[in-house]
Amino acid sequence: MNAVLLPILPPLIAALAALILRRGGAALALAGVALSLAGSLWLLAGVVDGQAQPLILPGLPDMPLRLVAGPMTALLSVAVATVGTFVLIYAVGYMKRESGQARFYAVMSLFLATMQALVLAGDWILLLAAWELIGLCSYLLIGFWFQRPEAANAASRAFLYTRSADLGLYVAVFMLIGSAGTSEIAASLDAGVSASTAAGLLLLLAAMGKSAQVPLQDWLMRAMAGPTPVSALLHSATLVAAGAILLIRSAPLLTPEALFAVGLVGGITTVAAGVIALAERDLKRLLAASTASQYGLMLIAVGAGVPLAALLHLLAHAAIKSSLFLAAGDFQHAREGTGFDQLKGVGRARPWAFAGFALAALALAGIPPLSGFFSKDAVIAAALSAPGAVWLVPLALAGTLLTGAYMARALRLLWRGSGDTRPVAGTGWMRAGIWGLAIPAAGLGLAFGPLETMLDLPAPETAGMGAILSGLVAALGGLALGWLVPVKRLLGPAHQWAESGLVVAGGLTACIGRPAMAVARRCDRLEDHLYAAALGVGHAAVNLARGGERLEQRLYLAVLGVGRANLAVGRWVRGGDERGIDGLIFALVAGVRALGARARTLQSGLIHHSLAISAVATAVLLAILFSASLSF
Amino acid sequence: MLPLVSLTLFLPLVGAVLILCLPKPTARTVHGIAIVSAALTLVGALAMWLQGVSGDGFSQVEELEWMPAIGAAYRVGVDGISLPLVLLSAVLFLVSFIYTSSLRDRPRAYVALILLLETTAIGTFTALDGILFYVFFEVSLVSMYFMIAGWGHEDRQRAALMFFIYTLLGSLPLLLAILGLYLGSPDPTFDMRAWIANPPLEGAAAMWALIAMLITFAVKIPAIPLHTWLPAAHVQAPTVGSVILAGIMLKFGTYGLVRFALQMTPEAFREAGIVVLVFGVVSAIYGAFAALAQTDLKRLVAYTSVNHMGYVIVGVSAAALTLDPAVRATALDGAVLQMFSHGLVTGALFFLVGMIQERAHTREMGEFGGLLKTVPLLGWSFVLAAFASLGLPGLAHFPAEFQIFLATLGTTPIAVVVILGIAIIAGTFLKALRETFLGEPRDRWNKMPDLSPREILAVAPLLVLTVATGVAPSWVLDVIHRTTSALVL
Fold first, then answer.
1. Does the interface predicted TM-score (ipTM) exceed 0.90?
2. Interface of B with A in 202-221 (CB under 8 A)
3. Non-local CB neighbours of A470 within 8 Å, separated by 6+ positions
4. Which of A58, A517, A530 sits opposite B228 (nearest CB)?
5. DSSP H helical segments within A95-148, as ranges?
6. What is the pLDDT of residues A58-95, one digit of tens each?
7. Which of A2, A116, A239, B488 has the greatest number of beta carbons closer than 10 A?
8. How many domains does one find in chain B?
């Protein structure tokens, strides 16, 4: 078996087995993801030795599906499997009291399998397929508690937003296949020419949907209606990550104009989502907004032409954000909710989870020597080296400052005050999950050096101390502001707007959703008119037929023939003592007779005219055939 | 060597005759005979599938003299375009008989009508003679008319009439076109193979013939604005009627579009291709929007058919417009696979909607809620079919639509706006799922029973094939591609 299947098949098999067996879902899923992790590590080891591992599967004619492991994709595969493993370990505790376990573990496993397929995809079609399937998995997981209306709505919204943006990927893929003549990603990348700006912008659109970039960020906050392990997985290594991964992988194809757009979207998002996060009243929603903001930073790095920095930040963020979410789920169980009102002082009651949360929060803010420090430094250095540095650097620094501020605010709110804490079942599993990810969140920075060597991607020109110092100042300043200054003072008049999610012009629902429904209703009304028109044409045809007296006479004869035939059929069928069809046929015959003396109603009239016309036509046909045969 | 095609074609008719000849058969016997003959037909279709097609022209051709003086004969055979549709028909009719086996209301006539319909359906796809094709094409109307009028819902008479008139009047132009092709042939014949090998008409004559064909097929497919019979017929038709109408009979139109319009008047089609393409794009997007506005589940599924068939029109016109054989093959691969997939997926959706209606006596989405909890098997089957219909990868529509859009972009880039349809259809189904299956279950439906074994047997094969076609489309595409890649226009 080709090694490239090793990360994909075990979770896929686990998903099927969990669905079929309906029990032991947790064990199956854990086994699946553990094997997947082993497989991805094996793959990475193989890639380090320099073996490319392509696998060609049957697909569309002349467009087979390909799986390829390169340094970057194998690394991402390890990241997905690692996060998946610890999230599932955590889920064993978190989901202990829930029903629907088989469904949960099956879909989680399927999610990991398709994400592995996306990461390892060697051709655009498989990438697109996996891209859409992770959308399905998130729909099923966000809507896991589908009886709750808010979960049902959030799931529908998440799928619809991302699917609509996915149209960009569809068209971009068509353009790339069209220009390269093959669906192989490597062929598109190796062609050495950049794709058209249009294709680049379409890729950006798709990435904006998945990575929740402004103005498509709204679904991500609502997606918090799903179970917390799902959020941890969505935000760190799967759904949301897919957008950034797409841009990182296709960065060589992007024209300068497209790169500029990518950087700009990222910059705007990192600030806007940072402000939204700062004003959130709910811990999970804060983390969700923070996700959008961090992916904005990654897009800045891609836009600056340094996908390596984006990749490093993606890896650091994967470990950090998943541990933050897992800790948030621990608090959620302790307090039966994730609003900051409910979570006052929960940090003191759940010290293990809080310590993990704090470590990850500081890492995200970019405090040395934690991983986020190195990755953020790389992003800022990338922005400094970019042609659009004037735009990108202030935005990146503002994003960094906001990160510090909202994380410090969250830490303050979780630490201060007091509330009733319930005992939590399954704490052991949850603690293992949190710390399994908090440790890499802290220490991953140490691995960046070797990783850079292995990836062999262009690194940012060392901007020296400038990047490090400005980033550090922004991070520390943000932490101080967030800890010391209440958010209402900090944001001033913008606070309310930020709290409502910085909605412009009523949001996408007002700008696209409602007009689409209006068009739909208009089409529906038009349908009624069309139907009426068709009936009207029928009436007109009858009247026309009435006009010609002679024609009528002939029609009558023809119709009578048809009627007689019908009568015969009717008699025959009556042998089978089935009155319904008899009645029908007799009604028909009666109608035929009546037609001769002018049809009175539209219904009986129309059909017999049609029958008549077809009879006449048949007669004409036969006459022609007959004369034709005579002429031979 | 057995005449496989003819056996497969007439087995259902033999079943129908048998049922009508038996004196006072019980309902059980009637359904038993129907299922056995449909199963044997499926065996025949599978045997044909195993025989396969060669890339060049038609395979498994069977010929009998009929009217030699005028060049009409009994000629049947298959190629990569028709063989998947034959298989689809055999599968859909078999599951329809399984589903319908609980019927006690005049089963004899009903089952005989469906068996007759099966013969005409397979006949339409396998006929290689103009007259034979037309006969099958027309006789199918009669069965469907009686099915709707005799076993439909409240307003069935009116809907049946609408359907009958529309499609009957619609098919007259095809007759003229067939005559035109016949008279234009240098050596007058109704042999469709000859018409395809050397398109007999040129210039204005070809254009008129094409226009006539397009009218007929646009009614059948149906394309905007000739589609108004479709929602009316579906809403009133019995479940099996809807399954066959959408699953098989709409393909008569798209099949004709390829077999007649594209293959017999290729030059004219190339000239008029842009117009046809526009009709396809408008159909697809309009159908999607109309579906979005529906609150009746069955009407909703009916309008998604208009959307999906719109894609087929787009694919066929892209094939007509392009000069690159590779792009043409991609477009036709997509169009033919889309027909096959639509039969499976929409068949399943109509079955499931019918099962809901049988239990609840309503199809209004607003009346339901939380059905996923109440009837999980039915609910999850619907979720799967809905995601298949909205074109999710791994399910049957994705490879088809992907190829259609890819070829469209390669031919007429602007027409790729048709892809908006897949976002609108996604919205349509998400809304339907949310209102019907998600949310708090209502007390009213607490007693609703989940799928019975009979219902599972009816719908499961379609869902399995939907997944199989989505995950490994090559099992169908290899057959289709063998013909489309060798197609000379």
1. yes
2. none
3. A380, A393, A397
4. A530
5. 101-120, 124-142
6. 888 888 899 988 888 899 999 999 999 999 999 998 88
7. A116
8. 1
